[in-house]
Task: inverse folding
């Protein structure tokens, strides 16, 4: 099985994204996804699908290949199960002289410490490889093979992490602001808001370091999420080593106007650098200032405003909220101003906003087209989508 792992509730966005990518890149019939829970999406193993997901998908945090499961709940039977499975199946991914590491997750109810589980899995892998006449060495710093172990009291799942690291890093956004969104969450927002880059302009009035606009370009053009000098670890072993590594954009072409506004000067400078670093094949219009001072003639000087678009925004939530102490009055004022500003934009603009759901709904109304609870790091927030 191939499994996409996302943040809580990411399944819907991950499934929509995989459908879109696979339709374009590998055609044919996409097997039905199994939703294991809100954040684990599984497909029957298919190397092209796995390779596509690990290189292009923007919504998952990890893409793993589930190798096998065992009910062994103590260390010795765990060792035996892994040793027997590997030595009997002679897996294709087991290549002589590879450097590997083992990462253990969710070992809370397994009756041994994560460190003990890690040692046992490592020994079983080395011994099974040696039994097959192959030698593997442990190298947590520069691994070519990354095993992921999910050890629970009733079942332990052994997988290969195909990227070898968390996928939220895109290698391009060097400068972050304190309140930056994770790239994977920004990508989920764009999908859940159903942004249509063929017909809708995009406008982020509180851009921060630029995550939403950068993800918008990446997803609209189907850019690989890897910088040219870095490759997923899966490129070290079959069947992925044989698959091509070129990085064409999957959806090349013109994009509608993209506009980003940021008021805080140091953050604006970071935004400028991030956009420059990303070497985009399209322009993003950057505006330094308060969105409240910007009307159509500043937003699109000398040209007629786009007739349709999406305002997408991750506004400040306020320190008090982040500390669990409720809302500051100035936050309410900012959200009211944002609502009025959006309503006054010329044209058919939708609004997608991620923030404190109760407060936002009290200002924007309860008729949201989408009202989805999400997690932004430790904070419980809602993604709300409105039409005028
Ligand atoms: C939560 S952060 C956005 C983070 C962004 N999504 C990212 O991932 O980097 C909110 C941003 O809104 C900016 N901001 C606050 N009030 C603003 C205003 N009136 N006009 C423009 N930007 C504003 C802040 O400076 C801050 O960078």
Result:
């Amino acid at each position: 099985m191939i499994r996409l792992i996302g943040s809580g509730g990411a399944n819907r966005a991950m499934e929509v994204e995989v459908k879109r990518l696979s339709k374009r890149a590998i055609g044919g019939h996409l097997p039905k996804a199994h939703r294991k829970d809100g954040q684990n999406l599984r497909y029957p193993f298919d190397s092209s699908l796995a390779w596509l997901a690990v290189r292009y998908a923007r919504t998952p945090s990890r893409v793993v290949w589930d190798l096998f499961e065992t009910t062994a709940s103590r260390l010795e039977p765990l060792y035996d199960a892994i040793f027997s499975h590997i030595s009997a199946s002679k897996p294709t991914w087991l290549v002589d002289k590879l450097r590997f590491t083992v990462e253990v997750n969710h070992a809370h109810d397994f009756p041994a410490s994560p460190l003990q589980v890690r040692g046992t899995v490592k020994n079983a892998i080395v011994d099974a490889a040696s039994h097959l006449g192959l030698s593997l060495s442990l190298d947590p710093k520069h691994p070519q093979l990354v095993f992921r172990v999910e050890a629970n009291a009733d079942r332990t799942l052994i997988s290969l992490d195909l990227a070898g690291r968390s996928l939220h890093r895109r290698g391009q956004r060097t400068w972050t602001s304190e309140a930056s969104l994770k790239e994977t969450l920004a990508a989920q927002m764009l999908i859940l808001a159903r942004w249509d880059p063929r017909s809708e302009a995009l406008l982020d009035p509180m851009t921060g370091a630029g995550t939403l606009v950068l993800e918008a370009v990446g997803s609209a053009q189907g850019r690989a999420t890897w910088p040219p000098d870095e490759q997923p670890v899966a490129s070290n072993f079959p069947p992925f080593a044989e698959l091509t590594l070129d990085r064409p954009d999957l959806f090349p072409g013109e994009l509608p106007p993209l506009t980003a506004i940021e008021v805080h000067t140091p953050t604006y400078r970071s935004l400028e650098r991030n956009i420059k670093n990303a070497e985009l094949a399209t322009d993003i219009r950057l505006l330094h200032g308060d969105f409240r001072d910007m009307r159509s003639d500043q937003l699109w000087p000398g040209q007629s405003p786009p007739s349709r678009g999406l305002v997408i925004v991750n506004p400040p939530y306020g320190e008090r909220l982040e500390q669990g102490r409720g809302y500051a009055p100035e936050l309410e004022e900012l959200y009211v101003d944002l609502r009025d500003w959006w309503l006054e934009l010329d044209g058919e603009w939708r609004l997608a906003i991620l923030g404190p759901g109760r407060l936002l709904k009290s200002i924007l109304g309860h008729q949201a087209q989408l009202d989805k609870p999400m997690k932004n790091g430790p904070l419980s927030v809602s993604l709300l989508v409105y039409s005028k």
